[in-house]
Amino acid sequence: MARRAANKGWQMIGSLTRCLAVALPLLVASRAVAEPETVTFKSADGETEIVAYLFKPATLGPHGAVVMLHGRAGPYSANVNRDCALVSRDTPSICNAGTLSKRHVMWGEYWAARGYLALLPDSFGPRGKAHGFGRFTHDDPDRDDVNEKTVRPLDAEGALVYLRARNDVTPSRIFLQGWSNGGSTTLNVMIRQGQRSGFRAALAFYPGCGREALLKPVVTTAAPIAMFLGSDDEEVSPAICQHVAERSREAGTTIDVTLYQGATHDFDDPGEKRQSVPDNAAAKADAMQRAMTVVEGMR
User: Fold this and answer.
1) How far is it, in rounded angstroms, from Cα 95 to Cα 214?
2) How many angstroms separate the CA atoms of 4 and 7, rounded?
3) At what angle do helices 102-113 and 2-32 cross, to 10 degrees?
4) Which of 9, 56, 68, 241 is exposed most, by the fewest CB atoms within 10 A?
């Protein structure tokens, strides 16, 4: 009788162990994809308080980190941002951590699931422009005070200071990633950084590389850069970016360019419109893996 009871007890323990084996990974995964935390920090302009969204890994730190710079449409979903203006610590807005665009959520969760903090600063909302801007609006004077040359790089540098001060971040392993207008900002941050320590490496997705977008025609920096371009980009010129990369390599910068044949602007946007293009789907999958390889290669 006692032996049967003991056997039954061991069977229950075995069942519990199997349940935990199934449940724990799901719990870990759910933590990694939870709604990001809303944080604030000072831009390096010394005045603007930036609202940002922090995706955190489920595991204990310290972790590497990625600062993600949104494009000209802003960080929020196009389904809600039309009527958004000011986003701040004390101003309720429908533009918030729960209404980020699919691409930013996808990348934030991607980094967090692989053990990296991902920080998405909103450069537009704190300046009253959370609605973002449409295509081909680069000459709109309303964009002057959120421009990618003299304003947004300071937000990225403020993000670097903020992350370096966190005890769950490894200060020497902070990376920079940007898309389109944020990709141009990324290149400008690296131009400003030059030979100084700062961001460990940079990932620039389909940036604008013309004179109106970059501080200089050559990116000279000690940190490596990976650039991801689509051959059929309808908004920016991949050829101009390739020329910038060639000149930058001649100046001693380590810069790798991946050109995806048939891919368009926003090729990594997970929405149906972009991913219905087979070349975009292939480019997205490859670019995500390459981005991870760049970051992991800097250990």
Assistant:
1) 29
2) 5
3) 130
4) 9
Q: Output the pLDDT for position 177.
A: 98
Return d(Cα 70, Cα 294) in angstroms, integer: 20
User: What residue has token string 């903090």?
Assistant: 117
User: Please, where are the H alpha helices in 57-149?
Assistant: 102-113
Q: Of 235, 223, 232, 237, which is closest to residue 295 (Cα–Cα)?
A: 223
Stated as kind and residue range, the H or E segment containing 264 is none
Run of H or E including 13: helix 2-32
Phi, then psi, of 44 in degrees rounded to 5: -70, 0
Torsion angle in degrees (nearest 10) through CA of 5, 7, 12, 17: 150
Report pTM: 0.88
Residue 162: what residue type? Y
pLDDT tens-digit readout, 174-215: 999 999 999 999 999 999 999 999 999 999 999 999 999 999
Show the DSSP H helices in 51-172 as ranges.
Answer: 102-113, 152-164
Q: What is the CA radius of gyration of the chain?
A: 21
- Is residue 62 reached through a cis peptide bond, with omega within 30 degrees of 0 on the bond before it? yes
d(CA 290, CA 172): 21
Phi-psi region of 32 (alpha: psi -120 to 50; beta: other; left: phi over 0): alpha
Phi-psi region of 118 (alpha: psi -120 to 50; beta: other; left: phi over 0): beta
Whose tokens are 């960080």? That residue is: 75
